[in-house]
Amino acid sequence: EDQRTAAPLAFATIAPVAADVDDVTVPRGYRWDAILRWGDPLFPGVPNLTATGTTAADQAKQFGYNCDYLDIIVDKGSTTKAVLVANHEYTNENIMFAPDTDAETIARTAWAAHGLSVVELRRAAAGKPWRYVVGGRRNRRITLDSTTFAVDGPAAGSTLLQTPADPTGKAVIGTMNNCSGGTTPWGTVLSGEENFHQYFYAAGTTPQEARYGLGTSGDSRRWRDFDHRWDATSAAGANEPNRFGWIVEVDPQNPTSTPVKHTAMGRLKHEGANVIIAANGKVVAYMGDDERFEYVYKFVSRDRYDGSGTAAARAKNKRLLSNGDLFVARFTGDGLEDGISDGTGVWLPLTKAGASVVPGMSIEEVLVYTRLAADTVMPTKMDRPEDVQPSLKSRRIYVACTNNSKRTATDIDEANPRPANKDGHIVEIIETNNSNTASTFRWNLLLICGDALSAGTYFGGYTGPVSPISCPDNLAFDSTGHLWISTDGQPGSIGLADALHHVALAGPERGRVRQFLAVPAGAETCGPVIHDKDGSVFVAVQHPGEDGSWEAPQSLFPDFVTPGSTPPGGREVRRPPTEHRPGH
Ligand code: FEO
Ligand code: CA
Ligand code: CA
Ligand code: CA
């Protein structure tokens, strides 16, 4: 903290960290601590992890696995109370369970380990570390097998969403593969259901299944052995894949509220959704579909935001994402003669006023098979668009295109300018008249990522030294409008541990990338949450050591207890939070 004098979050750039360092590396003068770990009990009387892992019943009341989206929402008028919201994208069964655990226990526990957690936090005073509260009033686990989601919007109740267990097509049990997300101005949390295809066994013979990657291979978890809904070739499971791939909305302030799946926002492999209130009061959500050669989308609400702050206004705002128009982006380059990747773009409508604008497709088909609808209007195939986030300060939008190994020299374009793009890039979008409801925009590549050895790198015009950066994924802004970029894949692309980077967006340092932290071996950096006025940064350390095994772990984060210590694996040992403070 002694380094933080001039600005709220001044820091000395850290050196890049080798991929095998099993530690969190932070700048000089900072320290780090774990707030919540997989398996931490959220309710009184719930056990911790045991020497053999956990059970489905316990997991449903413990913090879940592999967090991606993260927010820490400080209570209004307080500096010492908050709720933490994290989602639990997927499970690493190979390191979660002792080898002799039976298959059904593994499956059922994994269902409970997916979903989201809402957990109350407390601290002694502003600037002190947050601690989580066992049994906090708002504590909640949302899981894949216990939580009912209401389906809303124009496709709710569609025959495409009906199943024998839910003939209404309006009530889905669970959410899964929740990747990134966003917190709305009305205080709810959005989360994207991303790679849902990998949980299903399907014939894969229809264009609809094929377009979403559903097929006979890939459901390595074999959940269909324990619940037929995961078998899309069965009557029970035929429409079940259509019930995932949505943006979900959760109200963390009300633990008994029913979370919602918003069909108006389309069905993709949703990375997440980030909302801004346009000047005319409509809310605009920006969204990525994270797969190679997929598209960037925007949703514009039918109704206007009510900022009066009353309970009635909040209830109204919670329905803003239920009705609106859906668009997909086409980026056109203006040529590379000017030396930069930039150009103009257009938002191509897929729905208007609750109706389809795609010939031959009903509104329900456009929303359930959004990728197929988008294909008809020729949007730009991007290099895996992950987080798409508007700056609330400048209203500009930033798209993290994480990488694309399959881009070839013949299909490059100015917005995706590198073949075999291993390092990714960041697109900056400026809407016409800076209006977020505009139908056209200008764009440029803020960053073309890489290290000193990568071809074609560009750092927003900044020519001084920068930190190497590869595979940008989750984005966030601090209160001063600087961009923070977390990475997922630096070990494979540039041989470095995944990182969190700070990037200036304006002034002479625009494009200057400075590394703030590195995550432990095998992990990607998720979150992030930047409370710069508080001198704090929060990240979700996802899948540390995921290529290891139960017997031979590759990461001991966050407790760093040696395997073979007593108790076995150290899995019942929790170090006091203040003992281990790397970074000093
Ligand atoms: Fe779950 Fe697109 O990362
Ligand atoms: Ca150009
Ligand atoms: Ca991601
Ligand atoms: Ca990623």
Automatic annotation (TrEMBL):
Coiled-coil region(s): none
Organism domain of life: Bacteria
Annotated Basic and acidic residues bias: 571-582
Region described as Disordered: spans on this chain: 551-584
Protein name: Putative phosphatase
